[in-house]
Specification:
Blueprint: H1 8-40, H2 45-76
Amino acid sequence: MKRIKADELEMSVTYRAMRVSYVFMVLAIIGYCIYHCIRFNESPHFHILILCIQGILFFVVRLFLLRKMTMAEKEEI
């Protein structure tokens, strides 16, 4: 079976969709945490942990990809 590579337009659309879904998930978890704190007067530790891990993972992957791209750019020069 032949694999089809995504062109730039498809990759751009996928990237935008991922960004929108990421922002939605972060806002939904924050909203749930605020609701849970107000309603039950306790913090939802598991949800806050997921939110923190998600943020850390985002910045680590971003740093790795940025470093990888700048290294490749320096090698071309």
